[in-house]
Amino acid sequence: MTATTCPGCGLVAPATGGPFPDECGASAECWGRYGELLARSYTVAEYRHVHQLVVDAYIAQHPGGGSRREVQGLALCLMTLCPFVEDGADPREGAALHKQMMAGRPDYFHRLEPPPWLGLTTAVDVLAARDAVEHERLAWAWGRDVWRSWAPHHATIRRWNTRALARPET
Predict the structure, then answer these.
(1) Which of 14, 55, 94, 158 is the most buried (most CB within 10 A)?
(2) Vertex 160, ends 156 and 165: CA angle to 5°?
């Protein structure tokens, strides 16, 4: 059996031949695990409150290329991970934060060089949760690990947040 290694998180898994994501640097096998996490968030109410944390951690751990859409998507995920992890912001506010961050169609985002991922929590770790309490604990651990790994870019991300969140929401 052939194994694959995810370019984002390093997950080694048997090749499934599943679909690859279009705008994310993940293996098909890792993308499938992420789909399982999303399904959990969408179908089980007790898991939903950390949904945006899961999304942001995954995308930030699996950055895509340099297209405008990929750069903006990664920027938004990093920008919301920042207040979640540093300030204890509620992940349920993620959609509102994204809307405010993208108001005025900012053009100041640029591609950030991704850090190495070895040793970090992954989607597979969160999937192992036996209940909603453990899922939440693991999702927060994952978000903190991913945010910490982007430390070389924290000042840039904080500047983006200051600029984006200083504007009144339209």
Answers:
(1) 94
(2) 150
